[in-house]
C-alpha cells in the first residue's frame, strides 16, 4: 500500500458556504479555506510548485541554498517545502512581520534576514537581489516566476470549478504577488469567459498583511491587468472588522487579508443577484495573535 507524504496534502482545500453572514438578493457566498494547507496558507501551492518545477528543469538540486523575499506566508510555505526537499532556505522579510510568522519559518529550519519596517517588502526584495548577485544562493522569485500562477491554474482554479459544479459567477481575491488571481482567472475564464474576476488592493495608507499596492517599479511581472475585471480598494479597519466577523459569526479563524476578501465579496453582493461568489481565505488567524487583532474588547 502506497501512503501519501506531506506534500500530497497540499491543495484540495474545502469550499464552504457562509451561513450567518448572508448577502441576500439570492447570492451565495463561498469561502475557499486555504488555511487547511499543511503549512497553513494558500502559498503552500506556489511554494511547492516553484521548487518542483525548478528541480524538473535542473535549475536546482537538493543541498542548494534558496533565497526569497517574503512578507510571511510564502516564507513559511517555502520553509516547509525546503525542509521536505532538502534545501537550505534563506528568507528576507520586513522586521514588522508577526512573531508567529518568524517562528514558524525558523521551526522549519529557515534562516531569516530582516529588512527595515520602513523599507518593507521593497527593501526585502532589493536585499534578496543583492544576495543572489553575490552568489549566496539561487532565486525562486515568486514575483516573476510563472510557476507561481501555474500552481493555481493547475490546482486552485480547477478545484473551484469542480466544487461549484461550474456555477461560479464571481471570484474575489486579495492581490499580493498576484499569483493566485492570475492562475485562477486564467483557468476560470477558459471554462467560462463570463466569470468576473475581482482583485483587492489596500486603500492609500492601509497596511494589510498579504495585500499590496505596489509602486510601478516593483509591480510583479507575473501580473497581467487584463486578467482582472475589476479592482476594489480595501480599508484597514474594514478588513480587520470582517476578519473578526468570519471568526465570530462563521467559525472561520483567518487572517486580515481574508477579512478584506469577505468585505470585497459583500460589497459585490450588494450589486448583483443570484450570483455564486467565491472568495479566498488565504490563511489561518493563529499567526496573527501577537498583533492583538483578536484581543477581547474592553
UniProtKB/TrEMBL annotation:
<comment type="pathway">
    <text>Amino-acid biosynthesis; L-cysteine biosynthesis; L-cysteine from L-serine: step 2/2.</text>
</comment>
<keyword id="KW-0198">Cysteine biosynthesis</keyword>
<keyword id="KW-0028">Amino-acid biosynthesis</keyword>
<dbReference type="Pfam" id="PF00291">
    <property type="entry name" value="PALP"/>
</dbReference>
<dbReference type="InterPro" id="IPR050214">
    <property type="entry name" value="Cys_Synth/Cystath_Beta-Synth"/>
</dbReference>
<dbReference type="InterPro" id="IPR001216">
    <property type="entry name" value="P-phosphate_BS"/>
</dbReference>
<feature type="binding site">
    <location>
        <position position="257"/>
    </location>
    <ligand>
        <name>pyridoxal 5'-phosphate</name>
    </ligand>
</feature>
<dbReference type="GO" id="GO:0004124">
    <property type="term" value="F:cysteine synthase activity"/>
</dbReference>
<feature type="binding site">
    <location>
        <begin position="176"/>
        <end position="180"/>
    </location>
    <ligand>
        <name>pyridoxal 5'-phosphate</name>
    </ligand>
</feature>
<keyword id="KW-0663">Pyridoxal phosphate</keyword>
<dbReference type="GO" id="GO:0006535">
    <property type="term" value="P:cysteine biosynthetic process from serine"/>
</dbReference>
<feature type="modified residue" description="N6-(pyridoxal phosphate)lysine">
    <location>
        <position position="43"/>
    </location>
</feature>
<protein>
    <recommendedName>
        <fullName>Cysteine synthase</fullName>
        <ecNumber>2.5.1.47</ecNumber>
    </recommendedName>
</protein>
<keyword id="KW-0808">Transferase</keyword>
<dbReference type="InterPro" id="IPR001926">
    <property type="entry name" value="TrpB-like_PALP"/>
</dbReference>
<feature type="binding site">
    <location>
        <position position="73"/>
    </location>
    <ligand>
        <name>pyridoxal 5'-phosphate</name>
    </ligand>
</feature>
<dbReference type="InterPro" id="IPR036052">
    <property type="entry name" value="TrpB-like_PALP_sf"/>
</dbReference>
<dbReference type="InterPro" id="IPR005858">
    <property type="entry name" value="CysM"/>
</dbReference>
<comment type="similarity">
    <text>Belongs to the cysteine synthase/cystathionine beta-synthase family.</text>
</comment>
<feature type="domain" description="Tryptophan synthase beta chain-like PALP">
    <location>
        <begin position="6"/>
        <end position="283"/>
    </location>
</feature>
<dbReference type="InterPro" id="IPR005856">
    <property type="entry name" value="Cys_synth"/>
</dbReference>
